[in-house]
Amino acid sequence: MDVLVNNAGIDPHYARLEKTSSASWHEIVRTNLDGVFYCCKYFTAAMLEEKKGSVINISSIAGKVGLRRQVPYCATKGGVEQITRALALDWADAGVRVNGIGYGFIKTDLTSAITGHEHLGPQLLARTPLARFGSVEEVTGAAIFLASDAASYMTGHTIMVDGGWTAS
User: Fold this and answer.
1) Percentage of the chain modeled with pLDDT above 70
2) What's the whole-number mean pLDDT along residues 137-158?
3) Cα(first)–Cα(last) distance of the chain, in Å?
4) Mean pLDDT, range 65-70, rounded to an integer
5) Helix (H, G, I), strand (E, B) or coil at 130
6) In the 8-state DSSP scheme, what is residue 33?
7) Number of domains the chain is built from
8) Sign (positive/negative) of CA torsion 12, 14, 16, 22?
9) Which of 60, 117, 138, 149 could form a disulfide with 77, with the two C-beta atoms 3.0–4.6 Å apart?
10) Which residues are catalytic?
């Protein structure tokens, strides 16, 4: 295996912390954080043995900035950011690069309820400097770059594909 992309994720749970159930917390942690941990632990043996490879952990703007009513989601994406940095240090001597992609609001079937919402959609666009939602192809382009030799001197970083959201 040359490339591992940890892309499993779960929708944010939109509630204040005091209204967040333990079950919701654990479901988001299991999917977003434990998933990255276990995939990195069990699917990289060949990379480490061959002393080459690229791990790409998918994060979010929520790994860089706080978002209202999304404490579990923000905590897990911040954790993904830290796993990325720590593994980059641990595995650099084995020739395995570990980077991330932090996405903003990407237009998909999964996000259509938010991006197409009559009030939330325009608010999100107003907060995004490029004033549009991203596409799956734009995230894919970042992944192709990180998996390629063009990124051979990069490790421990997260490329933000967010329309400028985290720039301000």
Assistant:
1) 100
2) 98
3) 38
4) 94
5) coil
6) I
7) 1
8) negative
9) 60
10) 73
State the pairing for strand pair 3-6/96-103: unpaired
Between CA 25 and CA 29, with CA 27 as vertex, the angle to 5 degrees is 70
Whether residue 48 has pLDDT greater than 90: yes
Amino acid identity, position 161: V
Contact 12, 70 (CB under 8 A): yes
pLDDT at 138: 97
| C-alpha distances in Å from residue 153, one per residue of 85, 127, 144, 156 | 14, 33, 15, 10
Q: How far apart are CA 7 and CA 61, in angstroms?
A: 15
Residue 67 pLDDT > 80, yes or no? yes
Helical ranges in the chain per DSSP H: 22-28, 35-43, 45-50, 71-91, 112-115, 120-127, 136-147
Pairing of strands 3-6, 53-60: parallel
State the pTM of this model. 0.95
Give the pLDDT of residue 12. Answer: 72
